[in-house]
User: Fold this.
Amino acid sequence: MLTNYHISREVELNGDDIINYYNEIKETLVKNEIYKKAKDYSKTRSDLNHYFEVRRLLVERQEPNMKIN
Assistant:
């Protein structure tokens, strides 16, 4: 484990460099949020599919002539 670890370097950045750096950080954070939302959607969709399947099985058990697609 590193403690009191610090790297200091002087870098001259012009306005375009700062904007590009900012945009790169922003893009990385946006991609991460999109990934998280996609994973949440996938999980929610999977849960809904399983709940629907349980419901279908229960209805078919209670009413054998009734089929749910």
About this structure: The mean pLDDT is 83. Residues 1-69 form one domain. Helices lie at 15-62.
